Amino acid sequence: MNYVLPDIPYLKLRFVLTAQEEAWLHPIKGSMLRGAFGHALKRTVCVMGREQVCGACMLRQQCVYTRIFETFIEGDPPPFMHGLKTSPRPFVIEAPDTKQEYKTGDALEFYTTLFGKACELHPYVIFAFAMAAERGLTKRNHRFQLKQVDWMNKKWKLLYDCHTKCLCQMAKPSLLPKNGRMQAPLKLRFMTPTRIKVDKQLTMDFPFRTLVFKMLRRTLEIAHFHVSDAKLDWDFHELLEKADDIKIVEKKLYWDDWTRYSNMQKTTLHIGGFFGEMVLDGNLKPFVQLLRTSEILHVGKGTVFGLGKVRVEGW
Question: What are the structural domains, with CATH classification, of the chain?
């Protein structure tokens, strides 16, 4: 049996903002950008007013905000999601820039990847980030301006230019890769805090099977909620059994605690996770597509603001 993952269209965008004044930003920016984006998107598209609760809104299935940022589960949920009200969000924000002090004119660069049906909504995403930058980032409302947006299509291409304030073209999504040359042993490098839970506890001590399960679940749930007519196979037990045969021959992981401020909860949250690398050996061919997919989707908790970024070395 060769397990086949569903096709998931994705669109990777690169945003460049310029500071309109001196600013101080937290070195970890994914959560900040996610919050600013969500507030701006809702202000942009909501026609029902601030008093309307999204979960009870008659327009929630058609609303751009709920389709992207607060994706409610309609109907029967897929496996593993019973009791949950919302699905995984169809985007990931990556902000590798750890700079803190910005002078007027300095650039802030970050990336946003959209998945499935969210790809067609990229003009709303661009406009919302532009509005968020103009309104100001952080509680101090440091003003930025959206300078340009590029999209990845084998190479970066200009998509939005601040001088015209128009899209230069309509970006077309790519499909997550299915194949790739692979040579064992293979190294997985965890680039941002990765949060894997086993028995409701965060841990760095897990077998390859657990990592495969987490990757599979994320991939299938993104496809279930955000890809039209996705062909899903929830019977992946045989693939998990094959994962038992893969050996982790080397593991160098370390824990690092990050924090973020939650505007919704009005408190500081700890979002620590592990960094580092592990080396895998064995018959890795059945896992090529899954590993390549997870490079784009990320894995674990907090993926929406950039956690769980994994890179595979050895293709």
Answer: 9-174 (no CATH), 177-313 (3.30.70.1900)
